[in-house]
Amino acid sequence: MVVRTQPLTAEAFAPFGDVLDCAGAPDKMINEGLCGRFHDRAQLDFADGRAGISLFQAEPRSLPYTLTLVERHPEGSQAFIPMSFEPFLVICAQDLGDTPGEIVAFETAPGQAINFHRGTWHGVLTPLHAPGLFAVVDRIGPGANLEEFRLAEPVLIERG
Q: Cβ contacts of residue 138 below 8 Å, gap of 6+?
């Protein structure tokens, strides 16, 4: 199976989560009019525990990319916020209950970040350029919050 990437847009990504960017006008100007605030852009959702910010440093991948594993976090949402101005690959799958369904892939534009809704099947953090450094906002708390699913057949992700 081959999946072609598509540009990341709020509308296309809505079934899986939130696009975090500075599209449109700021909600308000702050800091003596020198800073635009784009307010409350992600739906953070945690069953229990608290929100935490961790730093991830992931090895860059390249396209075409062979996908063999997806995961989800049943106890909380998860945001990937790049700490460089480079695009990255976002892979999601429809939720068929205990298994993932159709795979879709997005390539972000520089300056975009994403927030996966709680329980969304998704690929691992997949930077396309070094340094692969991200801030990740997710649930910190007791209990398991990771389910992994190995695909029966690899999926090749190609640039669209």
A: 51, 52, 54, 73, 76, 77, 78, 79, 145
